[in-house]
Amino acid sequence: MSDYEPKPEHKFTFGLWTVGNVGRDPFGDPVRPRLSPVELVHLLAEVGAYGVNFHDNDLVPIDATPAKRDRIVADFKKALDETGLVVPMATTNLFGDPAFKDGAFTANDPKVRAYALHKTINAIDLGVELGAGVYVFWGGREGVETDAAKDPVEAIRRSRDAMNFLCEYVMDRGYNLRFALEAKPNEPRGDIYNATTGHMLAFIETLDHPEMVGVNPEVAHEHMAGLNFVHGVAQAWEAGKLFHIDLNDQAFGRYDQDLRFGSVNLKSAFFLVKLLEDVGYDGSRHFDAHAYRTEDYEGVKDFARGCMRTYLALKDKAEQWNADSEIQAILAEVNADDGSTASFTGAYSPDKAEALKAAKFDRVALGARGLPYERLDQLTIELLLGVR
Ligand code: GLT
Ligand code: MN
Ligand code: MN
Questions:
Q1: In this structure, what is the dihedral angle of CA atoms 203, 204, 207, 213, given to the nearest 10 degrees?
Q2: pLDDT-based confidence at residue 288 (cuts at 50, 70, 90)
Q3: What are the beta bridge partners of residue 13?
Q4: In the chain, where the domains are located
Q5: I want to staple 58 with a disulfide (CB 3.0 to 4.6 A). Which of 54, 164, 330, 335 is the partner?
Q6: Cα(291)–Cα(286) distance, integer angstroms
């Protein structure tokens, strides 16, 4: 049993916008006072986080003078030095300002598209200055309410042109920076382009520098689309594209709830943690979530500690699952291979195809075989419930 204390090697990070969320929603005003970036860094240090991420305007107000920008950045750096926190990821706010109401890179107005690039290259400079190695793109406004408004083929082309331009900018500057694209099916737009991690993976392969670009899947966003998040993450990992991850939780069929990690779909969270740990994912574990609107800042700390503690508890459970002899015996049984198909499976050859055509299969026996997945799942549930 571990003490579940977060340590730097766990790479737990939070965005300034997560613990800094003031609890405003479409129906109600803020319930918490706004804390400064420096105060938020100290809050994160107090709860044991490793890193802090930000949008350009979480740190520097959109209308700040250059002198004010420099002062804010200097204060922020001082807070990082004092606490030991690092900035693994940065991103651009391309959704809050009214200029982006019709999208940023996909807006119909070319001036808006140019302004989005202008804002992003400045924000990339800011992120790199503070040490970021991953740059996230979440295109919350890159969509429509009506398909009468925008040509969807053109929208994808505009997205591609923007990513190609920005990849070249990073290379031109010699920055050590990779991009991570974050999908979401809807909200705040009626529909958002490249709606899921799967769409993003396909889109990336059409870019000029696909090796620079991966994904930042978020639990809530895939669950909004009714998808199995663990499968999406596994596919991204297998493709070498899991550059970052946004951990939170979400009831299926709802708006983007951004709830505390593991607080809704515990079994899914378990298999996610098990996947990340089993494959050796070594990027940030970023909690893109926020505290309930009922909370004051003590509650925000409870929220942040809860995200990390649940992750560590599930990591412990994953180790227990991997070491459980009964579970492992079932896995060995269902994956058993007596070698009888070796002569016609694996890499293709014409001889193998001939052998395969000639092979005899006992189809009825194959169908009659019972697979003990009920038992396997119940063992998993009991392990998670702590009764095993
Ligand atoms: C916003 C969104 C998140 C994104 C952030 C990065 S901003 O809070 O809901 O999912 O990751 O732009
Ligand atoms: Mn996110
Ligand atoms: Mn979200």
A1: 150
A2: very high
A3: 51, 286
A4: 8-316, 325-385
A5: 54
A6: 15
- The widest CA-to-CA distance across the chain, in whole angstroms, is 78
- Residue 1 reports pLDDT greater than 60: no
> What are the structure tokens assigned to 230, written together?
């663990």
Q: Which residues, in sequence order, are CB contacts of 129 under 8 Å at separation 6+?
A: 73
Return the active site residues. Answer: 55, 58
Q: Which two tokens stand for residue 88?
A: 């693994």
Single-letter amino acid, residue 28: G
For residue 108, name the pLDDT band (cuts at 50, 70, 90): very high
Cβ neighbour number for residue 316 with a 10 Å cutoff: 15
- What token pair was written down for 13? 């990070």
The closest ligand to the CA of 217 turns out to be: 2
Identify the band that residue 228 occupies on the pLDDT scale cut at 50, 70 and 90.
Answer: very high
pLDDT at 212 over 60: yes
The pTM (predicted TM-score) of the whole model is 0.97
Alpha helix positions (H), 132-265:
152-173, 197-204, 219-224, 229-238
pLDDT digits (tens, 9 = 90+) for 321-380: 999 999 999 999 999 999 999 999 999 999 999 999 999 999 999 999 999 999 999 999
Task: Measure 245 CA to ligand 3 centroid, in angstroms.
Answer: 12
The SS3 call for residue 341 is coil
Return the pLDDT at 3: 87
Contact between residue 91 and residue 138 where contact means Cβ atoms under 8 Å apart: yes
Which class does domain 8-316 fall in?
Answer: alpha beta
Question: Closest ligand 1 atom to the C-alpha of 246?
Answer: 11
Q: Which two tokens stand for residue 339?
A: 């070698």
Place of tokens 């392969």: 205
DSSP letter, residue 191: E
Cβ–ligand 1 contact at 182 (below 6 Å): yes
Q: How far is the CA of 12 from the centre of ligand 2 (A)?
A: 15
- Angle, helices 373-385/325-334, rounded to nearest 10 degrees: 160
